[in-house]
Amino acid sequence: MNIGIDVDGVLTDIQGFNLKHAPPFFKKKFKRDVADKYSYDIRDIFKCSEVEYKAYWKKYLLKYVLFKPVRNGAKEVINQLRKDGHTVIIITKRVFTCNDDFRGRLMRLLIKNWLWRNGIKYDDIVFCDNDILDSKLTACMNKKIDVMIDDEPININAIAPIAKVICFSASYNCDCEGENVFHAGNWNEVYYIVERKQLL
Questions:
Q1: Per-residue pLDDT tens for 37-57?
Q2: Mean pLDDT of 75-99
Q3: How far is CA 186 from CA 83, 89, 127, 134, 192, in A?
Q4: Which pLDDT belongs to residue 128?
Q5: Which of 14, 31, 73, 122 is deepest in the core (most CB within 10 A)?
Q6: Where are the domains of the chain?
Q7: DSSP 108-169
Q8: Contact indicator for 104, 117 with CB cutoff of 8 Å
Q9: For domain 2-13+69-195, is the CATH number 3.40.50.1000?
Q10: CA dist., res. 163 & res. 180, Å (int)
Q11: What is the model's pTM?
Q12: Dihedral sign, CA of 154, 156, 159, 161?
C-alpha cells in the first residue's frame, strides 16, 4: 500500500508543544487566556488576532522545527511498515514549504534534516500549500495514497472519500468519524490497524 504520513500533529505532538509554550506567551504579552483548548489552531485556542498569532510563531517556530522530538514509536513503526513492503510518503502542509524563496528552501531543508536526525525513513516527500484547503487531497490523489495518517480535521474529512484515513487522535479531532476513518492514539495502534487489515 501507499501510506501517506503527515508531520505536524502526527510525527510531532504540536498540540502538546503549543499548550506548553502558548499560554504563558499570550498571558504575558497580550493578557490573553486559553479560550478553547480543544481547538487545532492557535488563533482559535486564544481567539487571537493574526498579528498576535504571527508574534507567537516568530518566537517559537524555529524551536519547534528544530527541537520538537518525534513521537514515541514513530521511527520503529515506519521502518517496519517499509520492511513489510509498504511505500511511505511524507505529505506535509508545513508553513512556508511551498514558498519559492529562501524561506521556503530553508524550511524544506529543515524538515528533511529533522526527519533524517530522527531516523524517519521514507520513499518520497510532498510539500503541500498551506494556503490551499484541499492541497493534501490533491497530493493523495496524485500519489495514489491508499492510507493517509493525519490529525487535522479539514484534511481527514477531505481525504476520507477517496482513501482510508487513520486519524491520529487529539482533542480537536474526536468528532472525525466516517466509514473510512480509523482512530489511533499512538504509533503502535497505527501499526495494528494497518497490519490487522482493518482498513480493507
A1: 888 889 999 999 999 999 999
A2: 97
A3: 20, 19, 24, 26, 10
A4: 97
A5: 14
A6: 2-13+69-195, 14-67
A7: HHHHHHHHHHTT---SEEEEPPTTSTTHHHHHHHHTT-SEEEE--HHHHHHHTTTSEEEEE-
A8: no
A9: yes
A10: 7
A11: 0.95
A12: negative
d(CA 43, CA 50): 7
Question: Distance (Å, rounded) from C-alpha 6 to C-alpha 88?
Answer: 11
One-letter amino acid of 118: N
Give the residue from 31, 199, 12 showing the smallest Cα distance to 115: 12
- CB burial of residue 38 (10 Å; 0-12, 13-18, 19+): middle
Residue 85 near residue 118, CB atoms below 8 Å: no
Type of residue found at 83: K
pLDDT, tens digit (0-9, with 9 covering 90-100), for 110-169: 999 999 999 999 999 999 998 888 999 999 999 999 999 999 999 999 999 999 999 999
- Contact indicator for 165, 148 with CB cutoff of 8 Å: yes
